[in-house]
Amino acid sequence: MDKENLINAYINEIKSRGYSRTTVRNVQYLLKSFMSKYELPDKKSITDYLFEADVSKNTKITRSYILLAFAKFLKEQMGIKLKTGVPKLKKSRKLPVYLTKAELGRLLNAMRGNIRDFTITAFAVQTGIRINELVNLKMKNIDLQERTVRIKGKGDKERIIPLSKDMVKILSRYLKGRQDGYLFEIKGHKISVSTIQKMIKKYAKK
């Protein structure tokens, strides 16, 4: 199967998962760019591609997740043998200037008795998303297997953010197999921005 057919097969796969047109278009653009330079997404080619790209470290990490997901599809669905793996690229996580790392640690420790509050805060810190984006996240936006979250921001622009292995474990414990509705709910309804703000203030006082 030639490169174009491999790309089309994967695009059809992510379309079947319900990915938005914007996400599909972005993934397709990246794969075409990558495959125009390399034969297959193996360890060396992915590493070289990311090294040569003149983009931020965060963008490189997002691209690496897309390429690794493509490689996984080629191995598992298309039967192509590949050696995958990329260098550890640490994603910058800027904490709010009003919260030190020590204060954040104390805040999370205070929340460990409440799995929902702990998950919300850990998720917000790890992804860096806005509160109004967080409260509107639905289960369909989360892919625990691929360790990604799709977020629709201003102007309906969609972006993909990778999730750490630890964050996936935290989410799995919190969700307990739930597969529909909003990611963070209270009695079947999505949690509000004001509820999260009050929650943070409550734990900050402890």
Structure overview:
With 206 residues, this protein is mainly α. 54% of the residues lie in helices and 8% in strands. The protein is built from 9 helices and 5 strands, in the order H-H-H-H-H-H-H-E-E-E-H-E-E-H. The strands form 2 sheets. Strands 1-2-3 form a 3-stranded antiparallel β-sheet. Strand 1 (142-143) and strand 2 (148-152) form a beta hairpin. Helix 1 runs antiparallel to helix 2 (21-35) and helix 6 packs antiparallel against helix 8 (165-175). The longest helix is centred in the first third of the chain and has 20 residues, at 57-76. It starts with a helix and ends with a helix. Mean pLDDT is 83; it is low at 90-98.
What is this structure, in a nutshell?
The chain contains 9 helices and 5 strands; from the N terminus they run αααααααβββαββα. It has 206 residues and is mainly alpha-helical.
